[in-house]
Amino acid sequence: MISLKGVQKTFNRGKANEVMALRGIDLEIPERDFVVIVGSNGSGKTTLLNTISASVLPSAGEIFFSGENVTTLPEHQRSRWVARVFQNPLSGTAPDLSILDNFRLAALRTSAKSLKIGVDEKFRNAVRDKVATLGLGLENKINQPIGTLSGGQRQALTLLMSVMDECKILLLDEPTAALDPRSAEVVMKTADDLIKQYSLTAILITHNLKDAFRYGNRLIQMAEGQIVKDIPSSAKQSLSEIELYSWFM
Amino acid sequence: MDFYLTALLQALCFSGIALGIYISMKIFNIPDITTDGSYTLGGVVTGILLSHSLPVSAILPIVTLSGALAGAVTGLIHTKLKINALLAGILVMTALYSINLTLLGRSNLPLLNYKTTFDTLTLTADLNQNTFLILCIFVPILIGIIGYILKTDFGIAMRATGNSETMVRALGVNTDRMKIIGLAIANSLTATSGFLMVQFQGYADINMGIGIVIMGLGSVIIGETIINWLRITSVWLSLAAVLGGAIVFQLVLAFTLSIGVDANLLKLVTALFVLLIVSLPRFSFTKAS
After folding, report:
1. Could you tell me the residue ranges of all domains in chain A?
2. Among A94, A89, A76, A233, which residue's Cα sits nearest to residue A175?
3. Looking at chain A, which terminus has fewer C-beta neighbours within 10 angstroms, N or C?
4. What fold characterizes domain A2-246?
């Protein structure tokens, strides 16, 4: 599904503050894989995710989605495959727009936004039903600006929004980093359910080793812009939590 | 009373600027100074075409297109050349002054003997009241069109662009294109104001746009205060509130003139008035907390 060949990224090339964020990443992610990436700060995790979504273009190397070369496609075109949930709950939603309008936009991720009024009764009911599955009681607030909700609620809604339209790849960049443990739990469970229900190929970046241990079928550790450990499904199951902690010692 | 009616008519003529600034500043979060130039451009184009005896129904589309072009240039400079929006607007505004002067060929063009929008329909004998009635048809149509656009899928994407650019890009919207189109719409509205004003006052003038942006800003800020007070979330009502802002603004200016403030001080009074409205929420906040 996702294939990276020799992807490199250098920020501020040729200047004193030059940073090599990615040093030649080769990575094959088959369909329906749920990959968890761990690594210390500055190891290149987020840059890797950003090159997949095209918010950062690689300095060298190529990126393929299902065999199609997408290296030069800009972000708004790569969104045909990719849905994202950001670290900052504020980035994934438009605060002054209602829940309904946010969902409308998400439902049009892969298609043109035309001069038609798309929010009708049918769409309203569909959103209400979808939001009700979260069990947060938000289905009665769909006309409320999304900015009035808590970070956890917004993050959960962002996840739901990602499956409003056809989605193949879900990128989760520390989606629970800014949340309290309970909201984090809700968001991670929702993510896990959606990934299974919609057979998504997903990549999760997390600093929460419990989550890294519990979710996903493949575990990757990054350090200094390189993949240093790649634990496949079978080995991940036999990995102990203690062992995982020891990677960071 | 006639004095205040004139102020009201001016306000309705300025509704285009107010809506334009609302789109650029509140929806796209871009401070767009092109306004001064595109307002005059709208007026100048109207003046020239009127003096060539073109019907107003043919003039209006050309005026909106010329305004849209000016806005699109600002948008292109801002997004493609990555130049600060404020500077991009100032550049286009400055360039437009020469363009306007070249188009007009002189600094002032009287238009008293031509058939304007306000002569197309005679609903009452009183000239000002007739103008008022025609504006009462024209302005709601304008608000209707903009409100409709903002309600569509395209409009939702527009509103989200100024709100959360990261999200919008991740949802497959070309934000650069969105901003260019947004500035084009905003400035075509501004040009429409020039179109109305020139016909209302009976002449096109090269300096008519100087400082006009403050009129739009003040209207939007008053409109926003109304929106916050009444907790308006509907798009239509928000636009109506902006129109209300334009009306309040003109009435306050008319009032200051009527109590005998020197007309030379009008711009100073305008600036102080806008400053007062902008700072008003701050004052009440400090008291509340």
Report:
1. 2-246
2. A89
3. C
4. Rossmann fold (3.40.50)
